[in-house]
Amino acid sequence: MTATTQPSAGASAAAPPALSVRDLRKTYDNGVEALKGISLDVQPGDFHALLGPNGAGKSTLIGIVSSLVNKTSGDVRVFGVDLHARRDEAMRLIGLVPQELNFNMFEKPLDILVNYAGFYGIARDEALARAEEELRRAQLWDKAQLTARTLSGGMKRRLMIARAMMTRPRLLILDEPTAGVDIEIRRDMWKTLREINAAGTTIILTTHYLEEAESLCRNLAIIDHGTIVAQGPMRALLARLDVEGFLFDVDGDLPGVLPQIEGATLVALDRHTLDLDMPRAMDLNRVFAVLGEAGIRVRSMRTKSNRLEELFVRMTGNGNAAPQQGEAA
Predict the structure, then answer these.
(1) H or E stretch at 123
(2) Predicted pLDDT of residue 328
(3) Where is each ABC transporter domain found (predicted)?
(4) What are phi and psi of 114, to 5 degrees?
(5) Alpha carbon separation from 198 to 77, 111, 195, 238 (Å, rounded)
(6) Assigned architecture for domain 16-232
(7) What is the edge-to-edge ordering of all strands in the sheet holding 265-270?
(8) Looking at the domain covering 243-312, what would its CATH class be?
């Protein structure tokens, strides 16, 4: 294999975004304005979350980027390639894992991958080699000759990712990839996605599991009612939160009347558990001192809630909005 020269820092900085969206708008025939001038950049190599309540516009945005939905106006570029003017070239750069399972349940996983590669002009010998590689990475090689309908829900999800990777996309878009699978399978899939990203593939992820986004993604954009209400590095956005929540497990029973901690809220969830909300600037030692004076001994503590979920609710104002007509849930 011929060695390649790594680009300089200046060259890397000048590289086009993996995805560049400018003033993207979509109004459906029924008048629903699903996207209201969205602008977004996803840098090469990023693992980027796209969050929002049902009906916010996430699926419309993904549909336009993957050329399944026609835009009303705006500009979309994939690694600098104009999606409208050079659609075929742009689509060869993208791998899409939709929320719905959309392969033939009576085909074998190996055939599903090889046939998919054939649609993109990949020679059969090369397709077979890639299929084995992707099925092994998805921990499905031992299922390669079984019919897909015999696979578990988690296996089918992993098969969707393996199929998308057959074309070696530079940008992988995942729409709720772990929906409906249990936590153990979900974490196995996280491992696979981290490996794909570490190998250089840019990933855009939509998910309703906010823990998933916080665990996997470095940057995020939050969409609500067709507009982006927040975007940027995950850590910077989480730093906006000025309140932290903790759960304390205590020895013995709690007293009937809890001590007052100025600036904080302390609530008994049961006889042995305290729920604390406090400003981020508050010193926990002060909390422990007040509890100690009241004869309350803390045995253990843990973070009460997912910080990203808290940010999400604050930014959107409603994490349970109903889907708009014309927008997938």
Answers:
(1) none
(2) 37
(3) 19-250
(4) -65, -45
(5) 23, 27, 5, 23
(6) 3-Layer(aba) Sandwich (3.40)
(7) 265-270, 273-279, 243-250, 298-303
(8) alpha beta
Amino acid at residue number 115: N
Q: What is the pLDDT of residues 209-265, one digit of tens each?
A: 888 898 999 999 999 999 999 999 998 888 777 778 899 999 989 998 999 998 898
Q: How far is CA 289 from CA 91, 235, 256, in A?
A: 60, 30, 19
Where do the structural domains in the chain lie, given as residue ranges? Answer: 16-232, 243-312
Mean pLDDT value across residues 194-218: 92
Would you say how long the chain is, in residues?
Answer: 329
> Are the C-beta atoms of residues 250 and 272 closer than 8 Å to each other?
yes
d(CA 282, CA 263): 8
Q: Which of 97, 94, 63, 64 lies closest to 81, judged by CA?
A: 94
Q: Which of 46-55, 157-166, 173-182 has the lowest mean pLDDT?
A: 173-182
Count of C-beta atoms within a 10 Å radius of residue 179: 14
Please tell me the distance from the alpha carbon of residue 24 to that of residue 105, in angstroms, as a whole number: 36
Closest CA to 203 of 40, 49, 21, 10: 49
Q: In the chain, which ranges are E strands?
A: 19-27, 33-42, 47-51, 73-78, 81-82, 94-97, 171-175, 202-206, 219-224, 227-233, 243-250, 265-270, 273-279, 298-303
